[in-house]
Amino acid sequence: MCGHAGQFGLRKTLEESSGRMDLFVVPTIGFDLLYAFVIVRLGRRDLVWINVTAYPTADWVARQITEAFPWNEAPRYMIRDRDRIYSAVVTRRLRAMVSGTNLPHRPHPGRTALPNG
Length: 117
Prior knowledge:
The protein is an alpha/beta fold. It has a single domain, classed as Nucleotidyltransferase, domain 5 (2-Layer Sandwich), CATH 3.30.420. 31% of the residues lie in helices and 29% in strands. It is built from 3 helices and 5 strands, in the order αβββαβαβ. Helix 3 (88-97) links the parallel strand 4 (77-80) and strand 5 (105-107). The radius of gyration is 16 Å and the shape is globular.
């Protein structure tokens, strides 16, 4: 029973210091494509930032991260997909915002192994 309580506490601590960002395609009524960028803070499940553009670039994504979090409120870990849009520019911005952390972001592996498969 004690092991479960410790795992729950660790999970709660990680959730409190983590965020999730995602970029996805939104079709318009005129069949154009827009790209929506969303940042969510996992601990409170708050929508932190949302913005839309027709032409996303790595510099644009890095600027969105800076605008979403003041320098002293950035989450310790940022979960993201392995999209090419998150290039070295975004990685450098995340590292600059979270001092004292070598790997502040965690790219999601895309496929997760099944526990009994």
